[in-house]
Design brief:
Strand order of the largest sheet: 1-2-3-4-6-5
Shape: globular
Order of helices and strands: HEEEEHEEHHEEEEEEHHHHEEHHHH
InterPro entries: CLK_kinases, Kinase-like_dom_sf, Prot_kinase_dom, Ser/Thr_kinase_AS
Helix content: 25-40%
Radius of gyration: 22 Å
CATH architecture of the largest domain: Orthogonal Bundle
Catalytic activity: L-tyrosyl-[protein] + ATP = O-phospho-L-tyrosyl-[protein] + ADP + H(+); L-threonyl-[protein] + ATP = O-phospho-L-threonyl-[protein] + ADP + H(+); L-seryl-[protein] + ATP = O-phospho-L-seryl-[protein] + ADP + H(+)
Bound molecules: adenosine-5'-triphosphate
Number of helices: 12
Strand content: 15-25%
CATH class of the largest domain: Mainly Alpha
Keywords: ATP-binding, Kinase, Nucleotide-binding, Serine/threonine-protein kinase, Transferase
CATH topology of the largest domain: Transferase(Phosphotransferase), domain 1
Largest sheet: 6 strands, antiparallel
GO molecular function, one term: ATP binding
Pfam family, one: Pkinase
Number of strands: 14
């Protein structure tokens, strides 16, 4: 579920980036009336007996235990702000599933109910063909909303990490990009905006991989290896921050590094904010590095200008009251004057223009790839390419 607002930066290790997340205020209205899973949890004795949650409201479990009489807990697949995801064996359907066990805290329970609504809309409209994770069912167990999902493989972020941030080959990035844009186009057609697209929320469908020799050798001349997924199929997860058409568009959304300029400037946001995130993700997949490694607004805007050119004047002039301080006389970015440190100035200066960056990492297709990226990373949201337009770009075809 989205906990948009992560501010993890250069100073912190990459592995810490999943953890440092500021929680969005999720006190939005949502039904408290939760359904019970068939009769299972309600009528049969729960096994194991009831235990106290931990102090953060997480469900406490041991591997191998039953989770309701129907499921057996096999492993912990992930943990987010909103709960833990457990790999379980479903005795009834005789299959592996992933169960998100949401923390027993009201605001997370309410957010989970919104995520269930979104998952149901996505599933109803598409009957299992979409590139969005499929919800199988949900239930309320000892005050924890539990969402049962089809089990998927690791996230693109975990895959990159496992490869020590060695980039994916461009042909694989093309495959990921096409599928990602298909899922975003599908959501936008349904008037839904994901608002928290990032490599952590894109999962490979299969866990199978191949180990291939890498060209780099270390000082002892030992051969290095890298992993490649056997299949490029991916699906989107985490619809806890998804916005409906009629929702307020002034809040801060999206994990910091994937956040569009209109959000930072307080201009309000809409469908284009997802396309900006897709642009940041594709650069990261082909370079192995986050494009905007920052956790601060002014530095973030300076990085955007360095990579993509100056912010349009009409955006600067409409900046919200809290964002005008980033500009001198309402005309140009207060940079480097407003930088908080020399290190920050250096971090901005070492960034390349987008086209140069892409040519460094991508051999063939660099020209068409950077053209697509320039469309996705257009600073002005009204001129940014839409998901449907991006899907017919030559790079993807
Ligand atoms: N269907 C699934 N199959 C396999 N693993 C999954 C599945 N769903 C989630 N996970 C794993 O669990 C992690 C947390 O899931 P998710 O992002 O939905 O939870 P969250 O609490 O909303 O997290 P966040 O704090 O990032 O918003 C994912 O990063 C992923 O590693």
């Amino acid at each position: 579920m989205g906990s948009s607002g992560a501010d993890h930066g250069r100073g912190e290790g990459r592995d810490a980036r999943k953890r440092r997340r500021l929680e969005r205020d999720l006190d939005s209205p949502g039904s408290e009336a939760v359904r019970d899973d068939g009769a299972a949890a309600a009528t049969r004795p729960a096994s194991p007996p009831w235990r106290e949650d931990d102090r953060d409201g997480h469900y406490v479990f041991e591997l191998g235990e039953d989770f309701t009489p129907r499921y057996k807990i096999l492993s912990k697949m992930g943990e987010g702000t909103f709960g833990r995801v457990l790999e379980c064996w479903d005795r009834e359907k005789r299959e592996h599933v992933a169960i998100k066990v949401v923390r027993s805290i009201n605001k997370y329970r309410r957010a989970a109910m919104i995520e269930i609504d979104v998952l149901n809309i996505l599933a109803r409209s598409d009957k299992g063909r979409s590139r969005c994770v499929q919800i199988l069912r949900w239930f309320d167990y000892h005050n924890h909303i539990c969402i049962v999902f089809e089990k998927l493989g690791s996230s693109l972020f975990d895959f990159l990490k496992r490869n020590r941030y060695h980039p994916f080959p461009v042909d694989l990035v093309r495959e990921f990009g096409r599928q990602l844009l298909e899922s975003v186009a599908y959501m936008h057609d349904l008037h839904l905006i994901h608002t928290d697209l990032k490599p952590e929320n894109i999962l490979l469908v299969s866990s199978e991989y191949v180990k291939v020799p890498s060209y780099k050798r270390n000082s002892q001349d030992a051969m290095h290896f890298r992993y490649l997924p056997k299949s490029s199929a991916i699906k989107l997860i985490d619809f806890g921050s998804t916005a409906f058409e009629d929702q307020d568009r002034s809040s801060i959304v999206t994990t910091r590094q994937y956040r569009a300029p209109e959000i930072i400037l307080g201009l309000g946001w809409d469908y284009p904010c997802d396309l900006w995130s897709v642009g940041c993700i594709l650069v990261e997949l082909c370079s192995g590095e986050q494009l905007f490694q920052t956790h601060e607004n002014l530095e973030h805007l300076a990085m955007m200008e360095r990579v993509l050119g100056p912010l349009p004047n009409h955006m600067i002039q409409r900046a919200s009251r809290s964002a005008v301080k980033y500009f001198r006389r309402g005309a140009r970015l207060n940079w480097p004057e407003g930088a908080i440190s020399r290190e920050s100035i250096r971090a901005v200066r070492k960034l390349d223009r987008l086209r140069d960056l892409v040519f460094q990492y991508v051999g063939h297709s660099a020209a068409s790839f950077s053209d697509l990226l320039l469309g996705l990373l257009t600073l002005d949201p009204s001129r940014r390419v839409t998901a449907r337009e991006a899907l017919v770009h030559p790079f993807l075809n």
